[in-house]
Amino acid sequence: MKRILLLVVALAAAVSVSAKSDTLSYASAESVGMDGKYLSTTIDSLVEYAMSQHAFPGCQILVARHGKIVHHKSYGHHTYRRYRAVENDHIFDLASCSKVMGATIAMMKLVEDGLIGLDEPFSKSFPYFVGSNKEDVTLREFLAHQGGLVPSVNVYRIMYDEQGRLREGLFSYTPSEEYPIEVYKNMWARKDMREIVYKAVADTPLGPKKFRYSCMSFLCYPYVVESLTGKGFEQFLRDTYYEPLGADAIMLNPAHKYPKNKILPTEVDTVYRNDLIHGYVHDESAAMLGGVSGNAGVFANTESMAKVLQMLLNGGTYGGKRYLKRKTIEEWTSCQYPENRNRRGLGFDRPIFSNSPELSFDDAYPAPSATQKSFGHYGFTGTMFWVDPAEDIIYIFLTNRVYPNRSIDALGRESTRTKCQEAVYEAIRRFEK
Fold first, then answer.
1. Domains, in order of start, for the chain
2. What is the β-pairing status of strands 383-388 and 375-379?
3. Are 55 and 411 in contact (CB under 8 A)?
4. How far out from the chain centre does Cα 104 lie?
5. Could you read off the pLDDT of 314-370 as tens digits, one per residue?
6. C-alpha dist (Å) from residue 292 to 161, 226, 237, 279, 416
């Protein structure tokens, strides 16, 4: 009997260890085969130089390998006034990184559960496209930016008349049954605003089926998630991923959920909301949808994002719980239309076909050493994440480079994100020498 009890205890311990072994923890860079001194000093110097060039007021960077976080650091301040330093629990507007951290992982689950098909017309689940030029375009084509959509819907044409005035009746300064959608503080949209936006998307022209990056289908995915699951878009994401992963700093519309002093502001909007955007989505089309959109609207810090990405890197498991099948992740992160020179996966971005360590930063995408197995996404506000299964790497770079004005692009000019990413690969090479 004693032997049996010991065996049971041993098995339980083994199961417990197994359940915990696929979760993130902190460790030295050297313990996972990286030159830690090179990694930290290089990233620090690149970031400090970029901030000196006013590429961004502050940022947050996380690097993990083999499930170990080896660099997790915040730099700079929320604004150039330098009143509040960025800390690791502060959250950023992810912009188009939301396409993966929200819409894509939601749609992955719907497809895996058989609620929608990748190769069936998207209009079967999105009735606004029925009878339009998009009626026969498949979900796969939309997710891979292969469906012929124009890049974006002109929200200003929806909002403003020919004289440049806000169209009468679209917005209210107070909430009511007729105006329940919060666009911004003291700005509420009509209850049928989603229908207005969806119909505007349906009415846009359709081009040839070749790669053309577009936000438009991502505006529509929350509707599909809600209609097929009976849950709100954010509630579905929380129940399916964020809460069980312990990713408690990923959310939509943080103005009412997270301390304001822990949310980085984005742009001083002088056209639409006439204010410094803070705690509300920066993207104009997502704002019209009340911040509930698939193209933008997710806010997060690097640690919570890393938990989602580690789950994908693990093949769909985290903390002993399965979230997605490995084959689902492999399909969605693979190139879908190589014959059309479209590098994209399903929702995920991928390296250019010619990517190589020999390329310059101007010619490579993303960093020169990112392999063809890697995947990720960029965001307009200055965000980026990239996962490389070949080296078992997670790299996340978050900033608010659009502060105070989107026209500032020193971040892109200096290639700061990709230079920091390349330092991750170089740290591995230096350790191996």
1. 23-432 (3.40.710.10)
2. antiparallel
3. yes
4. 9
5. 999 999 999 999 999 999 999 999 999 999 999 999 999 999 999 999 999 999 999
6. 25, 11, 12, 13, 30
Tell me the Ramachandran region of residue 154: left when phi exceeds 0, alpha when psi lies from -120 to 50, beta otherwise: beta
| pTM for the whole structure | 0.94
* pLDDT tens digits, 388-414: 999 999 999 999 999 999 988 899 999
Confidence (pLDDT) at 194:
97
Task: Kindly state the tokens that stand for 215.
Answer: 């936000």
Tokens of 323: 């979230």
User: Which sign, positive or negative, has the C-alpha torsion 297, 300, 302, 303?
Assistant: negative
Q: What are phi and psi of 68, to 5 degrees?
A: -115, 125
The whole-angstrom separation of Cα 300 and Cα 257 is 12
Residue 408: predicted pLDDT? 83
| Single-letter residue type at 282 | H
Contacts of 104 (CB under 8 A, 6+ apart): 143, 332, 346, 347, 348
Amino acid letter, residue 346 = L
